[in-house]
Amino acid sequence: IRFGLPKWFDQTQTSIGVRGTWRSLDQYSPRYCPTMIMTESGPVCDPTAPGYPDGYEWEIRTYLNFNFGM
């Protein structure tokens, strides 16, 4: 969502906005870790363990752009 004048007025502008992103995670995602297993070097993530659902994450970003133009 972006608030401000439309770009077709061809001038710099001050704007404020919010952006949301939802991601699904599976065994190929770097941050997916449904369970840990113990190895000789300590606990390690096991993304291929059976019986665990895929994960998900939300990312919320806000921004504010100021116009100091004449």
Short description:
About 0% of the residues lie in helices and about 45% in strands. With about 70 residues, the chain is mostly beta strands. The two termini are about 25 Å apart.
Structure description:
The relative contact order is 0.34. It is built from no helices and five strands. Strands 1-2-5 form a three-stranded antiparallel β-sheet, with no helix packed on it. A two-stranded antiparallel ribbon has the order 3-4. It is an all-beta fold and 70 residues long. The radius of gyration is 21 Å and the shape is elongated.
Summarize the helices and strands and which ones pair or pack.
Blueprint lengths: L1 E2 L11 E11 L10 E4 L2 E4 L9 E11 L5
Antiparallel strand pairs: 1-2, 2-5, 3-4
Query: In whole angstroms, how far apart are the ends?
Result: 26 Å
Sketch the topology as an H/E string, one letter per element: EEEEE
Number of H/I helices: 0
Category from helices, strands and their pairing: mainly beta
Q: Give helix % range.
A: under 10%
Oligomer: single chain
Q: What is the beta-strand fraction?
A: over 45%
Which whole number gives the mean pLDDT? Answer: 84
- Strands side by side in the biggest sheet: 1-2-5
Number of strands: 5
Largest sheet: 3 strands, antiparallel
Q: Which runs of at least 5 residues are low in confidence (pLDDT < 50)?
A: none
User: For the CA atoms, what is the radius of gyration?
Assistant: 21 Å
- Overall geometry: elongated
Annotation keywords:
70 residues, mainly beta, 3-stranded antiparallel sheet, two-stranded antiparallel ribbon, 46% strand, elongated
